[in-house]
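DM from R.C. (forwarded with permission)

"hey, sorry to bug you on a friday — could you get me a structure for this? deadline for the figure draft is monday and I only need the backbone to look sensible"
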Amino acid sequence: MAGKLNLDPSTVARARALAAEAGRPVVELARTHTTVSVERAILRLCGLTGADADGTPWVNRLTDRIAGQTGLEHGVLLPALHALRRFQPLSAPAASFGDGLRRLAEKPVDVALPTGRDLASARGTAARLARRAVRRLDAARATRDRLIRRYGDAPRRPWIYLIVATGDIHEDIPQAVAAARAGADVIAVIRSTGQSLLDYVPEGATREGFAGTYATQENFRLMRAALDGVSRDLGRYVRLTNYASGLCMPEIAVLAGLERLDMMLNDSMYGILFRDINPIRTFVDQRFSRQIHARAGIIINTGEDNYLTTADAVAEAHTVTVSQLLNEYFAHEAGLSDAQLGLGHAFEIDPDLPDSLRLETAHALLARELFPDAPLKWMPPTKHMTGDVFHGNLLDGMFNLVGALTGQGILLVGMMTEAVVTPWLSDRDVALRNVRYVLHAAGNMAEDFVPAPGGFVQRRAHQVLAEAVTLLERIAGESLLTAIAHGTFGIMRRPPDRGRGLSGVARVSDVYYNPFAELLS
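My reply, with the result:
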């Protein structure tokens, strides 16, 4: 790997080997544990939908009852199917099990763990339901591929990624359509504040979010249908993004796969660091959610940009590289390809620092060279946006230019009103004009841009990579969970025996059975 930075291939290989060494114990942890959200995701895949009159999803009602009676460690599907025999034979068509599971959730029926022939029968039915669910994910992926062939894809890289967030799905839709018509290639519907800490997924179309719109299956369906319509009009497929993070990460991944979302925010450590969700809960949920994303052809977006909003973007630049390497390892292990890795990084260096633009360029190009086939997600400045909209627009222009020079894959549109207001339509229009001008003017300048051999950019990239290797050596030696507990990432200290959602984690028993484990591996 010489490339534009003349990186030492043995150093890069060493970094990847250390990331794998640090990640393997966490993968083993995920393989041997389950969570309430994984079990609810399995029920959703088997067709259980809807909520009771109070808005509590049936998957929560059934999971909580079974976990309380037979224990979470055995999983919920086998006891559920065993009890379901009172309402329908297990030989019934697979499509009927959603209604059957709902009837079971509605009634105060005692459940038990099957044994002997009953256990074998329940396992056989579970495997049959899982094969049907995976065929639904495959069908959604095939539809995406067919529409991209029919309508065409975005005309350039990086893809222009724009956020809408009114709190009302019926107001988000016209804003998203307008953004697509103004040049956006990817629409992200940011979630309502606090949804990541809800231990259930709301139901239906929602109109009362806070600084964002609730992630629900119906909201996903409505927005995807609207973007399909504008894709047909524009002659290019417009992608849709949401968030598979927080306490319901696997369930939201399932809903995204079924409703054909194209990208999902899905970082390995964001929920731990910035939402204080228990580390073990997060890693178990994350692995299953990424297996779903892999099968559904969804691109994940990781959250390393957030580290640079709490820590110094120069001094801690190597922690971004370390996290990217860990995210890459976990993603590959879960079955994601390089083309599905929207690894995050950001333009967050203090603009008053001398050579700040050269430093940003070095960091962005290092990510590009380390992950040449990944659609890297390049995030705009936020930390040093002061409310001076003219200065903010200039910073966004510099961010756009570095994105073009270094060949980033996904460029989130920066807002000059960052830190002032939730963007107005007029703000988005100005920001999109900024992006369009820079990308049009720069063209394929990434082809021409080569840093001077031994110059500032190369030296800085080498320094960050060396610091990343040193940190990875420490993490591999002491364990990733210990490093997280010591505040290594984003200066947040998160020990493994604390955090939200810990009570919903269990080490699996010898009879535990997840029928998706083999199908998705």
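R.C.: lifesaver. The mean pLDDT is 95.
me: no worries. The longest strand covers residues 159-164.
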